Amino acid sequence: MTAEIPPVDGGFRPHRVVVLALDGLIPFELGIPHRIFGRPADPEGRPLYEVVTCSVRPPGPVETSADFAVDVPHGPEALATADTVIVPASYELGPVFEEGRLTPELAAALALVRPGTRWASICVGVYVLAAAGLLDGRPATTHWADADRFQRLFPRIRVDADVLFIDDGDVLTSAGVAAGIDLCLHMVRRDHGTAVANEVARRTVVPPHRAGGQAQYVHRPVPDPQLATTTAARAWALGRLHEPLQLRDLAEREAMSVRTFTRRFREEVGVSPGQWLTAQRVEHARQLLESTDLSVDQVARDSGFGTAQSMRQHLQQALGVTPSAYRRTFRAGAGAAGAG
């Protein structure tokens, strides 16, 4: 079976995502790209992405970490057709995992990837990207339990074990297992905007954006179930993003002191209340810029930034673009083809 790029129809071609299945792969993580990228469509109902799976060998079975194999329909030649290559986790990476070097078979397969192709990894799939030299001098993440070992094996990489994923432009890496969902949703959001990504998240029954990082999942003693949480305060704040919320306002919702609330919030969410609130306001601003004709000043007020200048600074820091540039990009892209 070949992996031909579909014929162009009126200039339209779906962005091709090629998922590299390696022996010992985790079935759950193999399915994430297919589930997330298989959903988005343009206003005419045409899929924005095409997802195919390949191995480093000719088409055939690939062993998984479960008690079954998967029949992979494409060989390594599919990598040459990719707009994005995703490497899910595998626990049988051999010298890649043990010594930080590619096998000849894997090196030959990766050499087929065209310059300018976007790369992404899920969990310990990052070892493949690192062994290929794609991450030297760059930031990356992986499962928190593997971060120290990964850093020792690849000292030139700036490992951050506190985040769910890292977007470094043409190379993206994610933390363990479900963080692959966060990463793939982020790529959809980056490619086609918040509205498209949110619709995928709704249909997949997952949050469109998880606040915080891996710190909230690191093993710690189980909290007393009778202790109060910060859940109600977060829900209350989400309905009042346009208001000038103070930390004491949130703490009072849970009948806690500011100090106790701040500690509990960071334990549960992985970031400070201020960082979380800013992230929610940025997300709300993105939705308004994409889906309404409100002025930038009004979007800033409705999102709780107060002024357009404040919102511009926060969006520039979070997204690397101004509000006007963001609106132009995703308003123009709303009905555009999903060409890579």
Task: Outline the structure in words.
The strands form 3 sheets. Strands 2-1-5-6-10-9 form a 6-stranded mixed beta sheet. Strands 3-4 form a two-stranded antiparallel sheet. Strands 7-8 form a two-stranded parallel ribbon. The model is unreliable at 215-226 and 333-340 (pLDDT under 50). It contains 14 helices and 10 strands. Strand 9 and strand 10 form a beta hairpin. The longest helix has 19 residues, at 273-291. The protein has 340 residues and is an alpha/beta fold.
Oligomer: single chain
Radius of gyration: 21 Å
Note the beta-strand portion.
5-15%
How many beta-strand elements?
A: 10
Strand order of the largest sheet: 2-1-5-6-10-9
Overall mean confidence score, pLDDT: 87
* Residue runs with pLDDT of under 50 for 5 or more positions: 215-226, 333-340
Shape: globular
Protein structure class: alpha/beta
Relative helix content: 40-55%
Q: How would you sum up the major sheet?
A: 6 strands, mixed
- Distance, first to last CA: 23 Å
Number of distinct helices = 14
Which sequence of SSEs, written as H and E, runs from N to C? EHEEEEHHEHEHEEEHHHHHHHHH
